[in-house]
Amino acid sequence: MDKKIRLLQVIPRLDVGGAETGCKDIAKFVANQSYFSAILCSGGEQIKKIDQSKVKIFRFPVQSKNPFIIFLNIFIILFIVLFYKINIIHVRSRAPAWSCYFASKIMRISLVSTFHGTYNFSNSLKKFYNSVMLRGDVVISGSKFIFDHIKTNYNYTKTISFIPRGIDTNYFSPKNPKVEQSNIVRSRWDVLNSDFIILLPGRLTFWKGQFFFLNTLLFLKQEKMLNNIKAIIIGDDQGRTEYREYLLNFIRHHQLDNDVKIISHEISMPSAYNACDLVLSASIEPEAFGRVAVEAQAMEKPILASNIGGSNETIIDGQTGFLFKSDDEKDLAKMIIEISKKDKSHDIAKTISPSLAKKALVIKVNDSFKDLSTIIEKDSTVQIITLEDDYGLEVIRHDTAHVLAMAVQELFKDTQVTIGPVIENGFYYDFSRKKPFTDEDLVKIEEKMREIIDRDEPTTREVWDREKAIEHFKKKGEFYKAEIIKSIPIKEEISIYFHGKWHDLCRGPHLTSTGKIGKAFKLLLILCANDKQKLVIER
Known about the structure:
The strands form seven sheets. Strands 3-2-1-4-5-6-7 form a seven-stranded parallel beta sheet, with helices on both faces. The protein is built from 18 helices and 27 strands. By secondary structure, it is of the alpha/beta class.
């Protein structure tokens, strides 16, 4: 046998789906290693995305469950194996798996099967039909959920190759240069930029949850909570025209035409993800892996999925996405409203991407900069600010100024703080005390600042009553601060920022904790002046 890989993958159709995309990706990878790569299928949309100068495509009715067709497919596969010297067959579905199984035995070549789903087995005959996926030389499970399912339900004693499935993170990336701008895609969908768009991708089949989702939208509409929420369902019916018509009739009957659209194909799924506000996986039966959840996270979009199957492995609830109770319309509705109307900025950043959450400093809501703890109550344009943004460095300097004041008051109890703004090339803080600082004090202050940063004191914001704030700072001996509060226009909030227990008057915004500042700072000099009461003001 030829030692080089000569691979034939067999799949019913190459439409949009997890197994299909995996098949396409493997075919491309094998071909790029200069090995022979071929796919046997009955057709499908993804064939257009395959370079057929590198990957050979055979089209025969391998999607059929007709026993006579399954028998004929054995001979089709035998011909391909003989003519193209195939030495590995990789099959991903039960009906063609039977044809592949007998062909591989006749030709004495390796058969690999990937167990892609739970496959219903209501009786022993159905279970026998499913068992063909375990008759190959190598059985692959793409998730721990499927691994456990095989072990629990099939009494399978051989080794299962657990190979976690993945995606192409160069393709599913907001940095992919081919991703269209959000407004272009929304225009194609005929929705507004101000709409909150929920995207439900997946082939049209009952267990994928499209009908369940429509009932949830109807519930929200009846409760007058739908507001600006719009839904886009993307999926091919793959011949299930009756189910598609059933969904469309439901939409028309309940007058949801302006709230939801069903689209058969989207030219670029990364662009579709980029254009939405929330990605939904509403499957009412367990997903073997759940590519949608992983693709959404790669595209830095919030994902909401049912709490069954592979989604429990690919989503950390409340950290990398959200889970709702499977087949519970009210819980799904509740989660949609919470995510669409009352997201905390930092929760958004964490949901989009753990790496973005680490880099996030503050958030820009419309034209105003806010803390990451800000709750977004209405439709807004939101931007996560990181150190890569011009404003990011200003925030770091502002927080460092606060830590400077905090360090001074921990070391020198009799010191009053006044103001501490950011300037073009750094920051300063003005202090009032009777005894001037020395150069030795400057060293101690800097050491204390680094200690405070190491303590990682949490930062919180409170809005105080004006008179309460004035009285509070007077009692603390902070007379300058009390006078500053008096000068603030009546209509403005009196916001107080706490770093641990230490606090000061400030408009903000600030980082979530002192540990986020880092230690790339240096105290350079002290300037000194006297006020009218002969108190020393030092900068």
